[in-house]
Known about the structure:
homodimer, 266 residues, Jelly Rolls, Arc Repressor Mutant, subunit A, 4-stranded antiparallel β-sheet, 8 helices, 20% strand, elongated, disordered N terminus, DNA-binding
Amino acid sequence: MFIQFGATGPKERLGWYQVEGGSMAQACTKQEGQACVVCHVGRRSDWHDLDPTASALLTSGRRRREYGSGEVVFAQGERNDGVHCVSGGTVGIRKLDGNGNSVLLELAYPGDTIGYRSFLTDSEHKTSAEALGPTVICHIDHSTIAALLAGNPALGLRFLKRSIGELEHAHDMMFRQATLSNRHKLVHLLLVLVGRHGRRNSNGSQSIDLPVSRRDLASMVGTRHETISRIIGRLETDGVAHFSGRQVTIPSVEALAAEIDCLIPA
Amino acid sequence: MFIQFGATGPKERLGWYQVEGGSMAQACTKQEGQACVVCHVGRRSDWHDLDPTASALLTSGRRRREYGSGEVVFAQGERNDGVHCVSGGTVGIRKLDGNGNSVLLELAYPGDTIGYRSFLTDSEHKTSAEALGPTVICHIDHSTIAALLAGNPALGLRFLKRSIGELEHAHDMMFRQATLSNRHKLVHLLLVLVGRHGRRNSNGSQSIDLPVSRRDLASMVGTRHETISRIIGRLETDGVAHFSGRQVTIPSVEALAAEIDCLIPA
DNA sequence: GAGCAAAATTGACGATCATCAACGACGGTC
DNA sequence: GACCGTCGTTGATGATCGTCAATTTTGCTC
């Protein structure tokens, strides 16, 4: 019924995940029965200052799991079975249709809660979530999250703010889709990815290990993968970015940003 | 600083607003000091089952106002000063940049609450709201809505569900932007507008009075207004829709829907 | 109704894109 | 190592789009 993109089965060579430059990802010292540190510190998580009883409830109702590249966390159309909290790695939120179309709508990072929308509306998942590379994700089952929400109004408020943040992100995306050229949309996307996945090189340039395929890149820009290939080619000849597989090197992020800054001063 | 689109100054010839076919809009018998019926009935509003004290608080902190076509309800960049609830008419939610670009992101109808995002995040408005045609809107000031939220957790939950609904709407939009052609995007938009603004004619065809200009239509589709003009021309020659100013007549809505149904069976 | 500004249409042209097809590269399986 | 499916790239071609410009239409003010 639903297509699994890039799903190549579990790779059990985990127990670690890459800490990317600029990312907040941290190794999580797994100790069953104790609260996972990553899920609480840094106020990057929605669960960081629960009262002791709620915290205990969370600890008992939470299951930590590692996902291999391409593994599906939850699939579009499935009934909701609780929420997930990204602890490490990168997760892609994807929407599919019955014609084989696939659009990567957003990326989720450590601290982000996913699957909360279908939980709160008590409905099936409207999107799929899939690990982009080795990923660690906590699952909080349906009854636990329900109990937590009932006893902690602040948690609901945090979901509300998360939802609003995602909505404003979606509005920005819609605005760019309507006003920018495909090239500028790709440049913008690269700049966002540099912020999340970029590492600084000794010569001042910055490099990214893209978490997504060219096809997904194309879906995020709103065009076909062949077109993305050609735009990448133009970026190469213009010398503003160098692509080698999923590795991208940007000689001057400022020069790349200037390309869209002249159009979007705000 | 911010451009007012279509703003031609207030038209004081109000006191009524058009009841469009298929729309839920109803005339609101204005009586100061009493609860506005439209804001409570039909569970289309976020305020429909407050307790008596909250209801009294709402009544005293609410101000009803009529807006003329093009009038701005709140402007992008302004500080939030409470929330608005659409009572009658149609409101456009718009995003602008400093280059004169304008994108109509969504339409708000009677029962919809707008401006709640910047209230809940205590920030400036990220979008503008503008009356598309004669409109009636209630304004609930900052302190009133704060008091209501503090005493009615259910109200916050309703905002949460509203936000989630808008987010899923935005995701659908993003998906269509990435997968549909401009023609199909316009067809889809027409079908949505038929559902909201359409009226059935005696011969089985349906007509719409478009609430938006061609430029706004173009921004919603993600293209230029000249292109929209040409696509409309093609729809005319294909006989699937007839345009005369802002009035559109669709001989067979089913035939129009079939154009995208064959591509989006889901 | 005259006048005006914005909206809408139409034409022409170059740029960009979608599609189909062919091919090499890569990763995983057996 | 052979096989296979997917991904990525490149080419060719027709369709579509963006831009500039000219013109008409519309809606509003006076």
